Amino acid sequence: MAFDITKVRNIGISAHIDSGKTTTSERILFYCNKIHAIHEVRGKDGVGAVMDNMELERERGITIQSAATQVQWKDITINLIDTPGHVDFTVEVERSLRVLDGAIMILCAVAGVQSQSITVDRQLKRYHVPRIAFVNKCDRQGANPIRVCGQLRDKLGLNAHMVELPIGLEDKLEGVVDLVGMKAIYFDGDNGENLRVAEIPAHMKADADKYHQELLEEAANFDDALMEKVLEGGDVSEEELIAAIRKGTLAEQFVGVFCGSAHVNKGIQPLLDGVVRYLPDPTEVHNYGLDLDKNEEQIELFNVPDKPTVALAFKLDDGQFGQLTYIRVYQGRVVKGMELMNTRSRKRFKVGRLVRMNSAAMEDISVGEPGDICALFGVDCASGDTFCAEGINYAMTSMFVPNPVISEAIEPVNKADAANLSKALNRFTKEDPTFQTYVDPESNQTIIKGMGELHLAVYVERMKREYKCEVKVSQPEVAYRESITQRADFNYTHKKQTGGSGQYGRVAGFMEPIADKDYEFVDSIKGGAIPNEYIPSCDKGFKRAMEKGSLIGAPVVGIKCTINDGQYHPVDSSDIAFQTAAIGAFREAYEKAKPVILEPIMKEKVAKQGLGNRISIETGDGENLRFPDSCFDRVTNAFGIRNFEDKDKGLREALRVLKPGGKLVILELSRPENKVIRWFYDLYFLNILPKIGGKVSGNKGAYYYLPASVKSFPGKKEFSAMMRKAGFETVTHKAFTFGICRMYTGEKPR
Questions:
Q1: Which one of 46, 271, 601, 690 has the lowest number of neighbouring Cβ atoms within 10 Å?
Q2: Nearest Cα to 27, choosing from 361, 264, 254, 358?
Q3: pLDDT digits (tens, 9 = 90+) for 578-597
Q4: Model confidence at 699: pLDDT above 70
Q5: C-alpha 312: how far from its chain's center?
């Protein structure tokens, strides 16, 4: 039978975690006769869903990796990808949506639009993927698909409308009303496999008419002929309404909302009909490549078999038979035995084994048709590579890869496992671009970075199971710094005589703390005490000495080194001699300058929100506080600041405050000549902190020193007294980081 690309649908299932994606996929496989028994994600039989093929997925009851399969629904071929719902595995959703033509967005009938639903919506919009929505779990207590449809409009800004209504809810869910064909559908049989079409129940007739009319009016916006019929009150056929809804869906201007419950086998078959009716076939989606031979000129690709082949590698999986590369064919055909070229590496390869994936099972095929999703074995490539036939040199745009947000230090429990750990890290970083690893140059620890604790925990467990490598996980070592707290003089002579030409150099001067730089070198030599060619050698020596302090071996910062005297020998002096002399001079003075250990800073973003003076402070732990407009109004009035929002002078100011426990926080505020912040800085850091034995040093006050005896909000008593003297009300505050506005106003952030 001839291949008909218009009867192909490439779709993905995306949703918030625990919305029922994998359960829905299992029913789709069953009703399409791909499997002959239904197994639950956390079923008592322990078998697990087909699409959760990893042992870890079945143990945890979550989807970790996207899984692909192909099913037949009536005369339509559906390439289906089930994606994870957890935010830690969001790259799996990104790589899937990059190659799909349509999507089913699943929502819980109770929880509605959740946090990951918003992320999925953003991803669908990024790749311009048309979608239909399925409100699942209508059998749960508190289910309300009408409310969820409203949330799609209000929270996501989608033009969502019901195309089905549930017949009953919670434990009384019986079936659905098809608002397009105006009929009731019931699901009989042990697994809901037998559809029974009947008249709409009398008690639902009014609601069905109401939502059918709304659907008609909205669909008419996408079809002028339908609009005329609706305005004139003429009869609209089911085919006309389907065509209009399809047009709106493909334009990403309409989202049809289906409902049901996959767990109790209700609503899945009409959902499959919706996939066929409303989601695009490959010919209805515009795909573009970049012609590398023509300065990356944009070229449209066509889903036809007689054009040169273009395919995109979107996912890698290193299995027992070698690397498995998932590809989407965008143009031409991929035929077993043909030669293709990787346009990134410029390497040619022959297509050896070509397979179609059905979750973990493989089906050998001889040809991948245009629009197909299949896999290749034994191809050395990276995720996002483009494969082209001879004669063309195209590249497809790759997917969006978010930056990792969490890091941990790992080391093998047994040194003998170091080689296996290296193999595991190489494989996992190649498969997953959001999993990254590097060796910290300061601590020499191996650091892994990922999208969350679960993300990293899964990879650590996979190292143990797949590579027999036990690893110890810990927090990365803190990147401490050292600095000095007072001035110290140095006068050091380096003299070495071993026969023949020796080494000689004397360096004198002083070191002192600075607050605006990590390091500064000043040459105050008079009369040629040290020749000009040896001055840079002294600078080099000081920099080398600062790489490792004497307290804990941490780098030294916030020091100004000045040389004002010295001595040289016409024969024995050299570049290395003066470098060594400078290192000795630094070490001599460093001990006298009372060195201290500096704690790291935590950076916090402050972003202007909306209109007025309201700002939002986003803390490192994800907390978000908003200060009311009145806070800034009172502050500006009190200080007589009139041009608080004067953008012509826009200077970035830094508000530096201490959190309980002695952590220094820098709040970056885009404020013009902010007198309020400057006043606070002068008051606290220049007047109060020195009185209690503290000292600010380092990069613009980024590091500080406090006596070990001082705990939490140093100088609170003195600060409160000065605030009262200045005429401001003080309050008790839990987090001094956010206390500045509350100290000025007495208001609590909301």
A1: 46
A2: 264
A3: 999 999 999 999 989 988 88
A4: no
A5: 22
The token pair that represents 625 in the structure block: 């506080």
Residue of 105, 455, 529, 56 lying closest to 279 (CA atoms): 105
Kindly state the helix (H) or strand (E) to which residue 742 belongs, with its residue range: helix 739-745
* pLDDT score recorded for residue 58: 63
Q: For tokens 């140059």, what's the residue?
A: 441
Which amino acid is located at 461 in the chain?
E
Instruction: Report the pLDDT averaged over residues 179-190.
Output: 90
* DSSP label of 448: E
Amino acid at position 33, single letter: N
Neighbours of 216 (CB within 10 A): 19
pLDDT in tens, 392-427: 888 888 777 877 877 888 888 888 788 888 888 888
739 CB-contact burial (10 Å; exposed 0-12 / middle 13-18 / buried 19+): buried
For residue 267, what are its two tokens? 């609503």
As a whole number, the mean pLDDT across the chain is 76
Q: Which of 537, 558, 556 is nearest to 547 (CA)?
A: 556
pLDDT in tens, 228-275: 888 777 788 888 899 999 999 998 889 999 999 988 889 899 999 999
Q: H or E element: which one contains 367?
A: strand 367-368
Confidence of residue 43 (pLDDT cuts 50, 70, 90): low
Own/partner long-range contacts of 460-464 (Cβ < 8 Å, ≥24 apart): 460/410, 461/56, 462/56, 462/424, 462/428, 463/420, 463/421, 463/424
Residue 679 token pair: 């006043």
Q: Is 142 helix (H, G, I), strand (E, B) or coil?
A: coil
Share of the chain above pLDDT 90, in %: 18
**CA terminus-to-terminus distance, the chain:** 66
- The structure tokens listed for 689 are 């902190």
Q: Are 494 and 534 in contact (CB under 8 A)?
A: no
State both tokens at 164: 């089905």
How far from the centroid of its chain's Cα atoms is residue 166's Cα?
36
Q: Write down the pLDDT at residue 321.
A: 67
Tell me how many helices (H) and strands (E) the chain has.
Answer: 17, 41
Of residues 419, 411, 422, 417, the one with CA closest to residue 469:
417
CA pseudo-torsion sign 716, 719, 725, 727 = negative
Q: Tell me: pLDDT of 120 over 50.
A: yes
> What is the rounded distance in angstroms from the CA atom of residue 527 to the CA atom of residue 515?
31
- Paired tokens of 312: 């995109």
Residue 375 CA to residue 354 CA, distance in Å, equals 6
Beta strands in 339-465, from DSSP E residues, in sequence order: 339-342, 347-350, 354-358, 361-364, 367-368, 373-377, 386-388, 394-395, 406-412, 436-439, 446-450
Residue 6 has pLDDT above 90, yes or no: no
Q: How many CB atoms lie within 10 A of CB 265?
A: 20
Task: Please choose, from the candidates 196, 163, 169, the residue with its C-alpha nearest in 3D space to the C-alpha of residue 182.
Answer: 163
**Which tokens go with 661?**
């426990």
* CA–CA gap between residue 346 and residue 342 (Å, rounded): 5
pLDDT band at 651 (very low <50, low <70, confident <90, very high): very low
Cα separations (Å) of 741 from 416, 640, 701, 744?
56, 16, 21, 5
Taking residues 120-135, what's their average pLDDT?
A: 90
Q: Which of 238, 199, 201 is nearest to 216 (CA)?
A: 238
Q: What angle do CA 298, 301, 304 make, to 5 degrees?
A: 165
- Please report the pLDDT score of residue 744 as a whole number: 34
Mean pLDDT of all residues in 567-576 = 88
> Who has greater pLDDT, 163 or 701?
163
Nearest to 165 by CA among 242, 26, 24, 266: 266
Q: Residue 509 pLDDT more than 90? A: yes
Closest among 434, 403, 405 to 622, alpha carbons compared: 405
Residue 291 to residue 61: CA distance in whole angstroms: 44
Using N-to-C axis directions, what is the helix angle for 535-545 and 575-592, rounded to 10°? 50
E strands, 140-193, in order: 160-162, 164-167, 175-178, 183-188
What's the farthest any 2 CA atoms get from each other in the chain? Answer: 113
